[in-house]
Every structure is written in C-alpha cells, then in structure tokens.
Write a structure and sequence with these properties.
The chain is an alpha+beta fold. The protein contains 10 helices and 6 strands.
Length: 317
C-alpha cells in the first residue's frame, strides 16, 4: 500500500481540539451570519425565470450577445458560454413574471433576427420556471439536505454508537453551511446543481468520517486500557495517509472539471472542491473531536452515577 505519511507518525490532533472547535465555530457562525445578512444569490431554479440555449454559426462573444439582448429590450440577463472559449453555444437566463416569460423564446429569436441573419443562429431549447415553482424547489432543496443529515444520524447511531452519531452530523452540517457561506461571500449563483453538489459533498465527507470512526472503534476495542485521547490520536494518524491520498486524487479530478469542464459545470466543480477541502478537515478535526467530547461528558456522568449505560464509555460497546 502506498503510504505518504510515515507509519510511526504521532501528531497530537486531539491535544489541540479546543482550537479546532473555536476555528470551526467561528467559520460556521460567520457563514450563518452571511446567509441572513447578505443572502444567497438564488438562480432562476429558485426565484423563477427562463433559460434560452442559443447556438450561432459564427463566433460571438459574451459582450456582443449581451449588447444584442440589451438592444432587444431584455434587462437583467445572465449570459453563460457553454464549453470552452471557442464554443458558439450560450445559455441566456432571464428573470421576470411568469406571464412575461412564456413567449421568451420567440422574443429572443425576434430580437436577434432584427440584428443578424435568422439563419446564423438557432434556439435549441427554452426552459421556464414560475416564481411559485421556484419557491417550492427552494424549499425542497433545503429539505433534501435536512433529510440527508437526519438519515445519516440514524445510520451512524445504529452502525456505531450514540456517541458517534452527533459527531458525524455536526461535521456534515459544518461542511454544508461553510460551503454555502462561501457561495454567499462570493455571490455565486445558488441553483439546483449546487444543491446536488452539496449532497454529493455530504456523502463524500460522511464516507471519510466513517473510515476514521471504524479505526477509532477498532483501536478502542484492541486497547481498552489506554487513554481515550491517545486511542483517538492513534486512529487518526493511522488513517491519515489514506485520507490524504483519497482527497488529493479526488481533488485532481475536480480541479480538472473546474479548468476544462466549461461554464455549465464550473460552479458544480467549485462546490465539490470547497466541500471536499472542508470535508477532509472536518473528518479529522471536527467529527473526532465531538466523539471525544461526547465520551468525556458521558464518562463524567457515569462517574457521578448518572450515566446512561453505567459503563466506562471510553471502552467500546
């Protein structure tokens, strides 16, 4: 097995656990504050609007197409080139009342025909989302993330122990909200594909967390007399090589998508990139820290005669 971290590495991750708690708390609270003050830049999937995909025979720049749209009376348009810099296909996004958007395809075609030859372009597709449907999609998108976290909470509680489940959910919430906070900070468009990317990040980060949890449980079982912090540190160090290799190889693919995937997939890849970085951090520093804090809390209650199980909880159940 390829090992990029020496076998005897013994980094004291848990010795600085309160530093990680402070950093993560500041990042999460800052992201929540951004969401409520600056707000997400919702795409037409969530606010309602229309998308028109156009293909041109000759090369057209985004600036030239925007000028044609302005001359045709269209305001508040967003234009995105599909593919590389030499691509001749564009996605034009419009916002407005649903009644105004029903004829947007023919209006765009008429506006372009007034300035350029009708045979030099083609309207490939027109998608319209009403404001009411957009609001329902927004609600469904956030509910999907909530249900994903709830199902993971139940799964980890059954798969491991009640001590582990809160750590997994806290780590995943941490990843999701910080990723959303970065979107608010950069005012990138938040659409259904970004929700899909965040759900993918939740799955990826949970897989990383499960690997660390498996090793922690195994180490606790094999060394029940050793201090809890030493067992958790050893577990993280033993999985560190695997974590780094998996993260780096996955990030290489995501970076390739960001650089060469074109405009349509760029925001999806960016979300995955940010989410994987934050997810790798949380698997090591957040999920494991919460397990330690939960175990210490329950052991303290047990020593006072108020524990839930009455057993020394640093040992595996």
């Amino acid at each position: 097995m390829l090992r990029i971290v020496p076998k005897n590495t013994n980094i004291d991750f848990m010795g600085k656990r309160y530093i990680w708690v402070a950093i993560s708390t500041i990042a999460v609270l800052g992201s929540i504050l951004l969401v409520f003050t600056k707000g997400l830049n919702y795409g037409i999937d969530f606010t309602g609007g229309a998308e028109v995909q156009l293909a041109f025979q000759n090369s057209v720049s985004v600036g030239e197409l925007r000028e044609l749209m302005d001359q045709g009376g269209f305001k508040s348009t967003r234009i995105q080139r599909l593919g590389g810099d030499t691509s001749k296909e564009f996605l034009v996004k419009f916002q407005g009342e649903e009644s105004d958007l029903q004829q947007v395809g023919s209006r765009v075609s008429a506006a372009l025909s007034a300035k350029i030859a009708p045979t030099s372009f083609e309207v490939l597709r027109v998608d319209v989302v009403g404001p009411q449907a957009g609001g329902e999609l927004r609600k469904s998108g956030f509910l999907s993330m909530f249900y994903a976290l709830l199902c993971i909470l139940i799964y980890v509680a059954i798969r491991f122990d009640v001590r582990y489940a809160p750590g997994a959910v806290v780590a995943l919430f941490h990843d999701s909200i910080i990723t959303i906070g970065i979107f608010v900070l950069l005012q990138k468009e938040f659409s259904l594909q970004i929700v899909a990317a965040i759900l993918a990040v939740i799955g990826y980060s949970n897989n990383d967390t499960i690997i660390v949890y498996d090793r922690i449980r195994e180490t606790l079982r094999n060394y029940p007399g050793r201090p809890l912090l030493e067992n958790v540190n050893r577990s993280i160090n033993e999985t560190l090589s695997r974590t780094i290799l998996t993260s780096v190889s996955t990030l290489m693919v995501v970076v390739a998508l960001m650089l060469f995937g074109g405009g349509v997939i760029a925001d999806f890849a960016f979300t995955m990139f940010v989410g994987m970085l934050v997810g790798t951090y949380s698997s090591i520093f957040v999920a494991s820290t919460v397990v330690v804090l939960m175990t210490e809390f329950q052991e303290k209650r047990a020593r006072l005669g108020k524990g839930l199980s009455g057993k020394p909880l640093s040992k595996p159940v």
